[in-house]
Amino acid sequence: MHKLKNSIRLLASAGLALAAIGAQASYLDGQSVTYTYVNGAATLSSQTVTVGAGTELGYIYQTGDGHGSIDIADSSITATFIRDGVMDSAAFNGFQLTLPNTLAAFGDASFSSTTPTSFISGAHISFVDHTLSVNWSGVPFLNGDTVVVNFSPVAAVPEPETYALMLAGLGVVGAVSRRQRRVK
């Protein structure tokens, strides 16, 4: 009976250790990120915001523009337009979301929903390291249109020290289990 209890304890410890390695914390929630709107060579606005519940920015281009809002969530950005218009046809006319270097870089980005169907194209979204860019040059938007961009970080690879620490912990659990058997 004691062997069964010790085996269960050992398996539970190993399971907890593996779960700790595989556990992924939230990506952007509570982090400070920089939203920059660029039209051609001109930066129209740049603001650092803390990601959380609700809308982070009450504008698309710059403060008071009346075009819509930006909501940055843990793994997505939602742009909601409240006025009809066509974006200028500059080489780049859109926003960039820049993460602090302490976070994992962008590993993937895609559109999950967008009202103007002409917008769904790989040419409109790109990412390099810690900066995600959405270019909507020449795209028409109507009141109520939304664009949702989903993104995820580069998958984290545990450091060798993490595995060494886990194995050392399992070794200690095994040694304690063996010692308890000898005492009885």
- Uncertain residue segments: 16-24
Oligomer: single chain
Rg on CA atoms, Å: 24 Å
User: End-to-end distance, in Å?
Assistant: 12 Å
* Category by helix and strand content: alpha+beta
Query: SSE order in H/E notation?
Result: HEEEEEEEEEEEH
Strand order of the largest sheet: 2-1-6-9-8
Number of helices: 2
* Portion in helices: 10-25%
**How confident overall, as mean pLDDT?**
78
Task: Report the sheet-strand fraction.
Answer: 25-35%
Using the alpha-carbon principal axes, give the shape.
Answer: elongated
Number of strand segments:
11
The largest pleated sheet is described as: 5 strands, antiparallel
Description of the molecule:
By secondary structure, this protein is an alpha+beta fold. It has a domain at 32-153. It has helices at residues 2-22, 160-183, and strands at 32-39, 42-50, 68-72, 76-81, 85-86, 93-98, 106-114, 125-128, 131-135, 140-141, 146-153. The strands form three sheets. The protein has a five-stranded antiparallel sheet, with no helix packed on it. The protein has a four-stranded antiparallel sheet with strand order 3-4-11-7, with no helix packed on it. Strands 5-10 form a two-stranded antiparallel ribbon. Strand 3 (68-72) and strand 4 (76-81) form a beta hairpin. Helix 1 runs antiparallel to helix 2. The longest helix has 24 residues, at 160-183. The radius of gyration is 24 Å and the shape is elongated. The two termini are 12 Å apart.
